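Revision sheet: structure tokens.
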Amino acid sequence: MFDVEIVHRAVLVTVNAHHIEDYEVSVLLTDDFHMTELNLEYRGIDAPTDVLAFAMCEAEDNELISHNMLGDVVISLETAERQATTEKHSLEEEVAFLTVHGMLHLLGYDHQTQEEAAVMFNKQETILKHLKVVGTLRVP
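Predicted:
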């Protein structure tokens, strides 16, 4: 049975690592069908993905939206389960990894360049160690 508490812990450790005290975030655990719909609508990709992050406060919008509203993280549990099997770890570990990864995107991290990736993945590994989850440098 999947323990959803890992999602709460992953969010909490990530925001604490950034010294954020007052925040709002939603995490949706869904299936591949719904994830495919979202991925097609927002990224033009007609396939499921493991995690999507929708930041509420970006560039020109940041004066219009409260700074404590970080955004939404969406995780496909079906994809996460397949990846957990491939990586030979638990579903909870995979969901923790995806939650931290999505949260870092909400906090402004990215991995489009080597420099960005190095910073983001270093932060991700540090947070996963605090969660006592074995990290990996793979990109969701």
